[in-house]
């Protein structure tokens, strides 16, 4: 039975469980449950703190896990990224008091508060910089005003927490994070993860594409299908009405309204959009 770690709390927890449900797996119904067996799919899910997930996967005690890229890097364990899951996006950034005119050149020699010492120490080591890393558990934005650090390195999503603490970011992000599927850094990992990866990829495609169908005069077909080339090629079927055809193609959800406008202008009619609930390409 495949053993998979899923975040039990925090930002990644609900979207991770939803994605697994969308991929056809059974998930816990009670937030206090820490294990859920899915006999039909021969998988067992373990609900753990996202920070600990890389540890369990790196040691080989669990086969696969869902966590943040920043947490994987921070852990330094022998686990690797198998798939970007497209949620939980955040940057990991330097920040200092507004008006302190901080820059990356001032990082060496400073006191840096962070809940991600592994990420910060990797940055320092790569540049041969020495600095004092103050490891905190959270609410890192308070560290500067409380006097334990000169600057911080932390997760930034909307930037609201930083702003409210009177801090501003500086320099390039140390990394761009999102939720990822991870496996142990060894030979068997890809094979173990193959079915789960295919299912999750199906969910990702279903989320970012819709199915577009329309009728168009046969003499306009080339122009119309140039707008909707599909993934392989669009499906074209005859219509009962002489000289018209029906077309079906997958299009990117983000582009569908522009494409519908352009198809209508071209003369296509009965333009219909349907959600895709899952797929294998
Ligand atoms: N706004 C956000 N705040 C915190 N973490 C975020 C945010 N958006 C995405 N993440 C990602 O979530 C992961 C951190 O999850 P974790 O559950 O440890 O923190 P949390 O959501 O802040 O929960 P808690 O504060 O309860 O520990 C990281 O990979 C981080 O990049
Ligand atoms: O840019 P924002 O949208 O404001 O989000 C980023 C903030 O959210 C998280 O804190 P959280 O609320 O999880 O508290 P914590 O620091 O105790 O983990 C993170 O550590 C940042 O502080
Ligand atoms: Mg947090």
Automatic annotation (TrEMBL):
The keyword Cell membrane does not apply. It comes from the Bacteria. It catalyses: 1-(5-phospho-beta-D-ribosyl)-ATP + diphosphate = 5-phospho-alpha-D-ribose 1-diphosphate + ATP. Pathway: Amino-acid biosynthesis; L-histidine biosynthesis; L-histidine from 5-phospho-alpha-D-ribose 1-diphosphate: step 1/9. It is found in: Cytoplasm. Coiled coil: none annotated. InterPro entries: ATP-PRT_HisG_long, ATP_PRibTrfase_cat, ATP_PRibTrfase_CS, ATP_PRibTrfase_HisG, HisG_C, N-reg_PII-like_a/b, N-reg_PII/ATP_PRibTrfase_C. Belongs to the ATP phosphoribosyltransferase family. Long subfamily. Catalyzes the condensation of ATP and 5-phosphoribose 1-diphosphate to form N'-(5'-phosphoribosyl)-ATP (PR-ATP). Has a crucial role in the pathway because the rate of histidine biosynthesis seems to be controlled primarily by regulation of HisG enzymatic activity. This is ATP phosphoribosyltransferase. It comes from Pseudosporangium ferrugineum.
